[in-house]
Amino acid sequence: MTSFLEQVERNSIQEAVVEHMRAMLSMEYYQDEFDLVIIDTPPQTSALTASAARAATHLLIPTEMQEDSVAGMADMAQLWQAENQVRDTNKLQLIGILATKYDPQSAAQRKTMEQLIQNEVLGDKLINPPMRYLQTYANSSSTFANPRSLFEMHENTPARNEAEQFCKVIFERIFQ
Question: How far apart (Å, rounded) are the C-alpha atoms in residues 67 and 63?
């Protein structure tokens, strides 16, 4: 009997954690101050990730075309579907799956991409073309990067141009 009660209490606490971010971001202050809130979470099932999904209106899933990354992407896709099962209205919109660090020369990555394209549920959610692997991305995310952002780089930088195109696609999918 004790373990059942402990489990009920744990579930209750987890549900409170999951609901907390949604309740907070629904407050008038946040609604008045922000047009858009971006929450970056690890691609794993946790109370924090579930809380972000509960608070979200839209979901973007970035993933590398590597086996372990695609497994994390699948977990996020399951979270998306599970979240929509508890919502009566205002479903969580999956705006896309963004393949990152894609190397078209890699047979393994091409095969993983092909398998994902053929997936009945997720195949049409892929943002095309995939984000290539460019050293500029890695350099711009380092602690001491200068410039600190891709968007501070020269406007003809391939990585900046590519990132701006992805931002445009994502923006259009959110605000269509």
Answer: 10
The reported pTM is 0.79
Interval 65-77: pLDDT, tens: 988 888 888 889 9
Closest residue by Cα to residue 36 from 13, 11, 50, 55? 55
Note whether residue 93 is domain-resident.
yes
Cis amide linkage into residue 158, ω under 30° from 0 = no
Phi and psi at 157, nearest 5°, equal -65, 125
Classify 115 as helix, strand or coil.
helix
Per residue in 27-59, pLDDT (tens digit) is 899 889 988 888 888 777 788 888 889 999 999
For the chain, how many structural domains are there in total?
Answer: 1
Q: Is residue 159 situated within a structural domain?
A: no
